[in-house]
Write a structure and sequence with these properties.
Order of helices and strands: HHEHEHEHHEHHEHEHHEHHHHHHH
Strand order of the largest sheet: 2-3-4-1-5
Oligomer: single chain
CATH architecture of one domain: 3-Layer(aba) Sandwich
Number of helices: 18
Helix content: 40-55%
Strand content: 5-15%
CATH superfamily of one domain: P-loop containing nucleotide triphosphate hydrolases
Structural class: alpha/beta
Shape: extended
């Protein structure tokens, strides 16, 4: 096989060899129904790396007897796409244009595909690892069938590895190598649902075993060949937002262990610790707020620590803040209050005269400040008077939740209303 990688050699040549994505491929599934009618609409394949997007594109084109022309959005552009579309207009066979990593094309570049897709000049199959609702033009997405691919489960990855080890034509069957159960388990684990990573790992482990003149791939050999599990986390992609969401929701749900798990994954994947600190600061006011105002102080202190310490030590400070926020009492009264206030902010009602600036010459003649009652002239340095336009005067924005320290307080005193006065 020369220098062709094992993952490329083992690419499925028929649907019968395709592993995983049982919700799409198989009897009674979406793709099977489409192909049984001999049709192939334009499709967007959305899923993590190594889940079979490229393979599926080739199999779909073959199934309808179409010519597949592949472009990578990384190193191609509008001129390449136009050349394919112009050729398709005069071609004898149906043309499938497969654009790998289509999200890397700008919205303007994506627009070039619209007429050809609309007219059926070409059938587009786009592959993306990023959320197409964010990365693709709405008009293009609306003209395509969106199919979501999931990471392969351990059983599917294990089956791929065993097939590659036994296949004498394309795989390692003629090498005479066997693999220990714990070595296979290791390769499955480090793959993280990525078939390409799994097969590349097996290839490396096989080379290591042959170099050691061993007929078995042991756990030690496999671990040495593939030492660390790849974390699915693109700082600009969909996984980024999913993991951050899981991190914040674990804190909001008062589960410190889950929050620490996601924190470790975020840091291990190379996230900027300043971004993590910013999220903690936001969460401290959004989901804890008045229930424990010290949470904001802790989060801000963690952000300051990031600037002074840096990784790897600053993970201690981020963990400190994460645990504090996860175990703190929760209240979203601040979040609810400011959202309600912003709803009324565009009302356009003028500032009441008694609240207007009366410091400049001529202001008093305009009635500014007239009737204003100075709070420090009254007991407890507080006085009731209108502080808002009449149209919003009955609206209450801040409603204490009763959680932790988020209690109803006497105006200006900072004390709960039932605490009495000194």
């Amino acid at each position: 096989m020369g220098d062709v990688p094992l993952a490329a050699r083992m690419r499925p040549r028929a649907f019968e060899e395709f592993v995983g994505q049982g919700h799409l491929v198989g009897e009674g599934r979406a793709l099977s129904g489409i192909l049984s009618r001999g049709t192939l609409p334009s499709i967007i394949l959305w899923g993590p790396a190594g889940t079979g997007k490229t393979t599926l594109a080739h199999l779909l084109a073959d199934a309808v007897g179409a010519e597949l022309i592949q472009l990578s959005a990384v190193n191609s552009g509008v001129a390449d796409a136009r050349k394919v579309m112009d050729g398709a207009r005069g071609g004898l066979f149906r043309t499938v244009l497969f654009v790998d990593e289509v999200h890397r094309w700008s919205k303007a570049q994506q627009d070039v595909l619209l007429p050809a897709v609309e007219e059926g000049t070409v059938t587009l199959i786009g592959a993306t690892t990023e959320n197409p609702y964010f990365s693709l033009n709405t008009p293009l997405l609306s003209r395509c069938l969106l199919l979501r691919l999931e990471p392969l489960d351990d059983e599917a990855v294990g089956a791929l590895l065993r097939r590659a080890l036994a296949d004498e034509d394309r795989g390692l069957g003629r090498s005479g190598l066997t693999i220990a159960d714990d070595a296979l388990e290791h390769l499955v684990t480090v793959a993280g649902g990525d078939a390409r990573v799994a097969l590349t790992g097996l290839d490396a482990a096989a080379e290591a075993a042959r170099a050691a003149e061993s007929v078995e791939i042991t756990r030690e050999v496999a671990a040495d060949a593939v030492q660390k599990k790849a974390i699915v986390y693109d700082r600009q992609g969909d996984a980024h937002y999913d993991v951050i969401s899981a991190f914040i929701k674990s804190i909001r749900g008062s589960d410190p262990d889950a929050a620490l798990f996601w924190l470790a994954r975020i840091i291990e994947a190379g996230e900027d610790p300043r971004f993590i600190a910013r999220r903690l600061i936001v969460h401290a006011s959004e989901d804890i707020g008045m229930a424990d105002s010290r949470a904001l102080e802790v989060a801000v202190a963690a952000a300051q620590a990031v600037e002074h310490v840096g990784l790897p030590e600053v993970r201690l400070n981020l963990a400190h803040a994460t645990i504090y926020l996860a175990t703190a009492p929760k209240s979203n009264s601040v979040y609810a209050a400011v959202n309600a206030a912003f709803e009324d902010a565009p009302s356009g009602e003028p500032v009441p005269l008694h609240l207007r600036d009366a410091s400049y010459r001529g202001a008093k003649q305009l009635g500014h400040g007239k009737g204003y009652r100075y709070p420090h002239d009254f007991p407890d340095h507080a006085v009731e008077q209108p502080y808002r336009p009449a149209g919003t005067s009955q609206r209450r924005y801040y409603v204490p939740s009763g959680q932790g320290e988020d209690l109803e307080r006497a105006p200006g005193s900072g004390r709960p209303v039932d605490a009495g006065r000194e």
